[in-house]
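Q: Predict the bound structure with iron/sulfur cluster.
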Amino acid sequence: MQSFGCRATQADGAALDRQLAAQGLNPANSALEADLVVLNTCTVTAAADQDARASIRRIHRENPDAKIMVTGCYAQRAPQEIAALPGVTWVVGNSHKHRVAEIAAQAQFRNQYPSEEYAAAQGEVQPVSQQNFVSLETVSLSAPAITLVGDIFAHTELIAAPVFAGDTIGEKTRPNLKVQDGCDNRCSFCIIPSVRSQSRSMALERVIEEANALVAAGYREIVLSGINLGRWGRDFQPQQRFEQLVRALLEHTDIEKIRISSVEPMDWTDELIALVAGSPRIAKHAHVPLQSGSDCILRRMHRKYRPWHYAEKIRKIHEAMPDAAIGADVMVGFPGESDDLFEESRSFIEHLPFTYLHVFTYSSRPGTPSAAMPDQVPVHVARERNRVLRELVAEKNRAFRQSFVGQSLEVITLQAGGDGWTEALSDNYLQVKIAGQHDPNMMMRVGIADLEEDGVLGIVQQ
Ligand code: SF4
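A: Predicted complex:
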């Protein structure tokens, strides 16, 4: 199993691993030794599609006998593109992702494959049942691949399992717990709603159960994630709110640290800000997607706020938590982004207390409204703008790190950094290099001695 892309796709991959194991399919050491390779793809940029195609070609070249199943967002968006690639046996869209393990088990243990009738009748997302499967011989191998891709909006499943940072059991830290999937927004550049369906949430009881299982397994920090996390609970009858989920985790679990991965600006309510600021068990870290600081561009992106709404939220977060990490996703090169509009965005960002940014260059996605917009920005211009914003925020980040020299911070240890150092992450999202070898998953307080590459140097305080 190889998963590409975002936390949500990684969490899907972890769930598929669980389901495949439950069907008796055990992980191979590498794709080269596998009978079956499952690629769980991303399609958020053109580069993501290219990565998936390159992996398919490499696996087929290096292990031609392996059956390749391609699932995930790219499979949902462009199944025919993938089906045409040599070596691909199945293309299974997100519409059928929850059936991947069954389909794989049928093939592995019973040499049975979805019949063409079954594959063709996939609009209604029929459940997998025996009569839909036939032996491989009867499947026309001339067909590029068997595709199972249905109407994504008929898809209501939420598959997820915790994803861990670090490879070995001992090194695993900070599990990412996906509690929400899909999105009801329609940002004009975004392909996600059309490949992940409408917003849907993991039931509160299951979230508490998963979190308590992670606590019992010794994890100290969990990262809550989703596609539009702040919308958790809005699909329930009666509706629930994200703040309720966070409160329930504080009340019904002993998790020492909850980190909230990313929440859209308008979901940073005064209540959520107060909850995060008021609880030492919630990391002082706010990731608030911005995309652009230009009002004209935000309107063309169909974003649900104006720059001044956004600025108001960031100011409230900063006032409530002056030492918190505040980050954002920002896009450059959106169609129609003239030099003046870019400068408007750059200046807006300059005047806000960001401590880091994820800067993306616009990538046109087939089928999105922005793909058809005029005034597409040349790539070299977009790349230059990307560089300008990275430089701007590098200065902000440096000043933020410098402000903690001489102070102490709470950190969680991640892994041995080699030659007598340990890597750690602070509550407010600073990379900390600690003198001495320490086990992963330790919570400790360190004195900040100096800046260090992109992080800071920490000395353990007894
Ligand atoms: S909020 Fe917008 S950018 Fe984010 S997943 Fe939804 S549509 Fe895409």
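A: Confidence is low (pLDDT under 50) at residues 122-132, 136-141.
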